[in-house]
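Session log. Operator J.P. requested a structure for one protein chain; no other inputs attached. Running the standard single-chain path with token output.
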Amino acid sequence: MNTLRELQPHEGPSVTRDERREFLERVGDQIHREPRHDTEWVRVTTLGCCREVGRASFILSTPETRVLVDCGDKPGAEGEVPYLQIPEANPIADLDAVVLTHAHLDHSALLPLLFKYGYDGPVYTTQATRDLMGLLQLDYLDVAAKEGRTPPYESAMVRKELKHTITVDYGNVTDIAPDIKLTFHNAGHILGSAVAHFHVGEGFHNVVFSGDVHYTDTRLFNGASNDFPRVETLIMESTYGRRNDYQTDQEDSERKLIRLINDTYEQDGIVVIPAFAVGRSQELMLVLEEAMREGTLPTMPIYLDGMIREATAIHTAYPEFLRDGLRQRILHGDENPFLAEQFQQVDGGQEMREDIAGGEPCIILSTSGMVTGGPIMSWLELLGGDPKNTLVFVGYQAQGTLGRRIQSGRREIPFSDRGSRSEQLTLRFDVESVSGFSGHADRNGLENFVGTMNPRPEEILCVHGDESSTDQLSSGLYQKFDVRTYAPKNMETFRLD
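Structure written below.
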């Protein structure tokens, strides 16, 4: 694999496709001192999410085609966006296709921005992802406006994006360019999430982007599929890629969560759980509904704050993406666990939150999952000062987020009240973390995803993890499976041979 290192951002005028191709060949020749006479090649350029979590974005290019894979933001880091200005990504208007692996904002938030910059082509994703991404992107704009930030695009760009979306079912082979075929496979991460397989040329090269994967079955989904006829290069997520990143067994995690809720209930406290609107919230709803139905938890209100109710409705609209047993319960409406009477929507704004905080013991599921804004900030203010209450983290907290700082022990946090006055908020409630509910595979799951592939890839790029995660997973996969591995930086171009 030849690598074009450290390409600098391009701030000048847009370049033509011929100029861009000339640039890539010239830089490659200058660095490697070897002439390029072949007419068939594949390259991957990293525009984000390398040695970090967030702003996932890549360019897959051939002599004739450029495809953008994902275009997300970085949680807790306003202004850190994909490097869309570099030559390999420009002109944006001339991209041949965009492929979205799933709807989480660190993969999808900035996709409408492409249409602001002149893109007018197709967006390929699954049907469920199309519905979820529109929901989350509009909420993203709403939260930005409420927090006084300038949204990066207008809602009209979301509507335009949705009109250009072409949905693809798992397993269906789709021609997205004259020399590239796309096939989606279940990623097991969230509703509609996909592993994207690209077949380039007439069997010249096969590239797989894992997106975010969960290798084993959960209450919601079957585990990720890794059954590909061929794959030479795998671009692999590394969120839990460190040597000791082993999650607790899910049954043990559920028992721990139920114990924490019971302990808080017995001292007349309230449990608040920051959760992503899509994925973790629905998994937790299933756990809590079953525990109350079977009597391991006392029946109490479970309040849903943020976009959780709307996202759950989309789950019930696509039962074919869910596990068989859950699918059958949803199809028989009177058994739908998501419609249990304990679930109540927080739809009265701050006044309703204040009433809940001053009331009886309950459970609150609230966005945002990494405590980077949204309604969870109100719950910190209302509940954080009472040691009877409990905050429970059940998902990954990225570096730089307030969630990571609280999880790491920080109890004095910056806070802006509704008058926009900055102050410090002291947290006195109990803070707990329960692993095992993440939508990401742990280190074992990542290794098993690669180890059970037949045939295995010849080379793996470890992305979507902090520096220690990508480095340690890259080293571990090399040692265990004897494949070429890399932990790339942002703005690198890899020639795949």
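Operator note: The radius of gyration is 23 Å.
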